Amino acid sequence: MTDPNRRAVRPVTVRYWAGARAAAGVAEETLETGPLVGDVLDAAVAAHPDLTEVVAVCSVIVDGRASSRDLEVAEGAVVELLPPFAGG
């Protein structure tokens, strides 16, 4: 019998841009995470604690679309973390 309180875990690809890449120390990785964008962000911070402040100000893109923490992510989704940037 399946526990209804158990949250499905799925692999997603996380891509880090600019300051997020610097904080994570990698450009991209696959994380096993819960079903929500918030779960992905929490897993990324758990894997790379230096991301804590960066993630708080990042835009989050899931499969090419702007996202919020409560959006469900499909297995194999690509989640991109884009910190604010300046320039011309």
Structure overview:
The chain is globular and about 30 Å long. The chain has a single domain (10-82), classed as Ubiquitin-like (UB roll), CATH 3.10.20. The protein has helices at residues 19-24, 37-47, 52-57; strands at 10-16, 28-33, 59-62, 65-66, 78-82. It has a five-stranded mixed sheet. Strand 3 and strand 4 (65-66) form a beta hairpin. The chain is built from three helices and five strands; from the N terminus they run βαβααβββ. The chain starts with 9 loop residues before the first strand and ends in a 6-residue tail after the last strand. The chain is an alpha+beta fold and 88 residues long. The mean pLDDT is 90.
Give a short summary of the structure:
The protein is of the alpha+beta class and 88 residues long.
Architecture blueprint of SSEs:
Blueprint (H helix, E strand, L loop, with lengths): L9 E7 L2 H6 L3 E6 L3 H11 L4 H6 L1 E4 L2 E2 L11 E5 L6
Parallel strand pairs: 1-5
Antiparallel strand pairs: 1-2, 3-4, 3-5
Predict the CATH topology.
Answer: Ubiquitin-like (UB roll)
Return the structural class. alpha+beta
Q: What fraction of residues sit in β-strands?
A: 25-35%
Distance from first to last alpha carbon? 57 Å
Looking at the structure, what is the overall shape?
globular
Question: Strand order of the main beta sheet, please?
Answer: 2-1-5-3-4
Cα gyration radius (Å)? 13 Å
Q: Determine the fraction of residues in helical runs and give it as a percent range.
A: 25-40%
In CATH, the homologous superfamily goes by the name: Beta-grasp domain
Protein name: Molybdopterin converting factor small subunit
Pfam family, one: ThiS
Organism: Knoellia remsis
